[in-house]
Amino acid sequence: MNNYRFPLRGKIVWLLPTLLCGAIGCGSSDAPADIEISPAKGKLRALSTGYINASRKLKRPPKNAEELKPFLKDLGDPADLLKSPTDGSELVIAWGTDLMKPPPGGRQLVWAYEKQMHGEKRWVIMGRYPFELTEEQFNSSAFAPNLRKPS
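Request: output the structure for the sequence above.
Response:
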């Protein structure tokens, strides 16, 4: 039987760089900066999360605001989450949009948006995430089948 032992030097060659990297750190010495999420984006993200939670629990997408509201309570004021984060008007929502299925053609669909633009942009929820789009981006987006673009 051959009892071969690694020499101590071979172990140090691997152990020393590992310990140094752990002690010194492999990244920048600057502390990570806090990323600030705009209140509008946070609000629409909560609405999207509530819509997905409702879809999972109901085993289908919510058909209206009343079905969605119980799932928004833990995320904020349901009435407030269903309104535009910039002007407080009701959001346009394509009720019954199934976010659990892949979108047709692989393109994310706009299923909720602000009625009015603010400045040159408007907030939308596309797929599961909120975005602030220019009017050109908005008009060239794919919309949920039961959602009409504003005229």
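The CA atoms of residues 94 and 111 lie 5 Å apart.
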